[in-house]
Write a structure and sequence with these properties.
This protein is α+β, with helices and mostly antiparallel strands. Helix content is 31%, strand content 31%.
Length: 128
């Protein structure tokens, strides 16, 4: 029984990607779907598709082999709009390398989009 669907799914995706597998199936959640859409839009996964299975659904993820590290940030740290450079230095290995996934009043977006739109939010995950 999964306690944290997001953490379990991101860990499974990372391990499948590292082991050279091209497809991964994870339990559905709206937050997870939005996070995976951000990963798809920024080139970390090839595609994300919802499949109805009668038990709440699943997400079928096609992998590209582009993920080096993918993890949930626990607890979800709040970030103010002027703190992005400090937070990026804490979680990402270099400037411009990798992404932070953030939930904001405008939805789930990356740190770069939040910085451009001058938004704060809560950190969900990081990827590089």
């Amino acid at each position: 029984m999964a306690v944290d669907i997001l953490a379990d799914a991101l860990n499974k995706i990372k391990l499948y990607d590292r082991n050279g597998k091209r497809e991964c199936s994870v339990k559905y959640s709206k937050l997870l779907e939005n996070v995976l859409i951000q990963l798809r839009d920024h080139g970390y996964v090839e595609s994300v598709e919802k499949v109805e299975d009668g038990k709440g659904g699943r997400l079928e993820v096609k992998l590209k082999g582009a993920i080096k590290e993918l993890a949930v940030i626990k607890p979800n740290k709040p970030v103010k709009k002027h703190e992005w450079y400090t937070i990026e230095a804490m979680y990402l290995p270099a400037i411009g390398y990798g992404r932070l996934i953030v939930t904001t009043p405008k939805g789930v977006i990356t740190n770069e989009e939040a910085r451009e739109q001058k938004l704060g939010g809560r950190l969900i995950a990081y990827v590089f």
